[in-house]
Structures are given as structure tokens and as C-alpha cells.
Amino acid sequence: MKMIIKAPAKLNLGLDAPLVHPNKEVEWEMIMTSISLCDYVTLETNDSQEIEIDTDSGFLPADSRNLALKAAELFFKANHINSGLKITIEKNIPVAAGLGGGSSDAAAVLRGLNQMFETGYSIFELAKFGLQIDSDVPYCVYGKTALVSGYGEIITPLPKLPSMWFVLAKPNVSVSTPKIIRSLYGTELQHPNISLLTEAVKRQDYGEIAGNLANTLENVTGELYPQILTIKQRLVNYGADGSLMTGSGPTTYGICRKKVGLIECLIVFLAFVGKYIWPDQSKLNN
């Protein structure tokens, strides 16, 4: 049996870490959305009784550090499945970019295996599986605009975003999310007003959304990689209505209300970031 599943990238419209515990575990409050930039995950059963993974990216590990492989192993163990499985990942989402590529691949594996083996798990139950893998996996199982809180397990669906365009720009650096998270304890963080942004999304108020994009990790990662803050400012200078680093970075995006604004922003910005740039429309995946 063979199945191909899309694994869309995620963006944070808002991200706060209201509680950072002494053991370095973090409780989050985030607004997340999914976009059309995606990986493609192929699942194919065989008679080997082993799970193997292959990818066209040289940056992904082929062992239990790979979240997609970890998801398959967890799912098989929980359901006493002895079939062999080959996972093939076509990577389009940059690695270590703050776009949730690994988490989305893992979520795609969970969704695909649930359908393939007819195990009948609800989205809520798959999200509980996901929390054992990574804090972003529960959201990626849902894959639609939502308020995410707790350790990533509390998903509150929100209305789809008003039509808008995203310009994604990734500087030529990779960021270790665990390293950023470990640095949070004892750090004085700026806490954005996620409630204000949530209400703007509920009202589908584009102007208020653009004006309230905020990420408490932005200055933390920006101190290590100042080019992130430079990109953020240039996106606004070149026509974006708002700009933000997503996740732990380094990818930064700008939003534009209309396609003409997107094109103008792309033309003047392309020379600055070269190939690390993607246009994306919000309504495609919400």
C-alpha cells in the first residue's frame, strides 16, 4: 500500500512563553497558521518488518532524531503493527528554519498511518500522539489557524485568516530550537498581547493582525543572528504591512494585503536574500 501526504509549513502570527520552568520546559501561547509551502511524505508498506526513512535532503537524520521516523515507531508500537514501512520525504520546507517542517512531516505520518491501517483515531487522539514527539506536532495534526497553548497540546481553532500574502525570507543560517529554549530560563522576556491578536483574527481584521504580529523569541534569536532583525525591518521598508520572525527562527516573513504589494516587495527584496524567499497566499491552506 502506498500513500502520499502533504505536510504544510506553519507560521507563528503570535508567540509568547508565559511560563518557563526551572527544568527548562516552556508553556506556550501562540497563534499559528499553515501555508502552501509543503513537504510531501510518501508512506509505502512492505514485508521487511522494519521502518526505514529516505529523504532528498542531506540535512535530515535517518534515525530516531527524525521526527517522522519517531512518529511511525510510536504509532506502530501503540497499535502492535508489525508491517514494514518506507517513509520518503520530499523536502521543500527548509530545515531548522522555524517553519515546523519536521513536526509537519511527523504529523503527516500520523495522519497517513491512521488512514492506511484504519485505526480510527480522531484528530484529538492523533494530537495526543503528537505531543510525545514535539510540541508543534499537535498543531500540525490540525493544520489550520488556531490558538495553541499549554505545552502545545491545547488547540483552539480560530476562523480562517482574511486573504493576505506572505513573503518568507530565510537567511543562510540554521537555528537550534532546543538551544534557544534552553536559554529562556532566567531571561527577561517581552510578552506580547496574544489576546489582542486572537480577537483580531476572530474579527478577520487584516490591519489589526498586521499591527499585532509578535514573537517573544525574536529578540532572543536576533541577538545571535542580527541579520534576522535586518530582514524584518527591510521587509517593512520594502512594502510589507507587518513582519515577524516565525518560531525560533531564522525565517522571517512579511504580510501584504494585495498581490500587487507582494510583487513590489519581492522585486526590491529579492536581491537582498536571493533564493531564500517564497511568496505564499494565506487562503490556500486555511
TrEMBL record:
Record-annotated active site: K10, D136
Name the record gives this protein: 4-diphosphocytidyl-2-C-methyl-D-erythritol kinase
Listed Pfam families: GHMP_kinases_C, GHMP_kinases_N
PANTHER family, sorted: 4-DIPHOSPHOCYTIDYL-2-C-METHYL-D-ERYTHRITOL KINASE, CHLOROPLASTIC
Catalysed reactions, as listed in the record: 4-CDP-2-C-methyl-D-erythritol + ATP = 4-CDP-2-C-methyl-D-erythritol 2-phosphate + ADP + H(+)
The keyword Nucleotide-binding is assigned to this record: yes
A GO term, aspect molecular function: 4-(cytidine 5'-diphospho)-2-C-methyl-D-erythritol kinase activity
Organism, scientific name: Lentilactobacillus kosonis
Lineage: Bacteria, Bacillati, Bacillota, Bacilli, Lactobacillales
Record GO biological process: isopentenyl diphosphate biosynthetic process, methylerythritol 4-phosphate pathway; terpenoid biosynthetic process
